[in-house]
Amino acid sequence: MQKIAVLTSGGDAPGMNAAIRAVVRKANYHGVRVVGVSRGFSGLIEGDFKPLDLTSVGDIIHRGGTILRTARSAEFLKEEGQRKAVAQIEKKGKEGLIVIGGEGSFKGASRLSSMGVPTVAVPATIDNDIPCTEYTIGFDTTVNTVVDAINKIRDTATSHERVFVIEVMGRTSGFIALAAGLAGGAESILIPEMGYDLEVVVDKIMRGLTRGKLHSIIIVAEGAGDVIEISKKIKSMSNFDVKVTILGHIQRGGTPTAFDRILASRMGAKAVELLLTGRTNRMVGIKSSNITHYDIDEALKEEVMIDLELYDLAGILAR
Ligand code: F6P
User: Fold this and answer.
1) Residue 129 is among the residues annotated as catalytic for this protein
2) Domain hosting residue 164, numbered range
3) CATH number, domain containing residue 271
4) Residue closest by Cα to atom 10 of ligand 1
5) What angle do CA 181, 187, 188 make, to 5 degrees?
6) Local structure of residue 35 (DSSP, 8 states)
7) How far apart are the C-alpha atoms of 148 and 103, rounded to whole Å?
8) I need a surface site. Which of 4, 17, 54, 215 has the fewest CB within 10 A?
């Protein structure tokens, strides 16, 4: 293998740049040339490729976002778009592809693999909702960003003796909410994977106030319900002064943590190694601190579930 391509796709995640850097530098170490594809599968369909050398990936390890830019391509979901993408790879003489992204990107990688393009996927999404890996690139940074926000909100919540309902990202998963809620000492954590009863939430706040607590923090994952509605209900069920904060896209930006940079470096390098040893349709993962790899289709059949012990622990400790 002499020439490979790399792209980032789906929602950006802090650490994607560190992964691109690792792909380029590891490939270069083995004498393999790398091109970067702009805007994910959209750029692949259009043939928007640019060579990446050691210098092009200098000074990016600490930057959030992705220098390759990213997109969610509707055209690539159709077979015609996929054929166009394969034709571009063949036309430009690329012998392998590394896809850095989340679940949707993994499905795209699997499709390209089945159409004859040797493809390896690297999990990068702030949501941490990819099977067969304990961590995805970007999750740790986002959790730290949310915890920092909780700390700040806690200051003002305490000063005014208020209840804060904070919405965090996670359309279909509660990983960010659970980890940040536990680390931030939230009173309640509402996530799409688990049912909840607002009466229990209100009762818990009440008990805290009786014990002399000056504030309450409720973390709500996007997918667990409308925060405005939730806060209105809490207000109507009590006399609390309830405020809402929607953290939004600040959760996706910012300098990646050392954890994410190391994870991205290890995973990016492993992806190159897999391609160079003739593997295709593989995803890189991390398990018990070891970098592993799995068949993408097999991995996608697995259910991703939050850690129930962690969920219970958060409930026990935030009393
Ligand atoms: O998939 C990552 C993610 O950040 C989700 O947590 C969030 O719901 C979604 O992307 C937001 O996507 P967009 O930026 O396209 O609105």
Assistant:
1) no
2) 142-252
3) 3.40.50.450
4) 11
5) 70
6) E
7) 27
8) 54
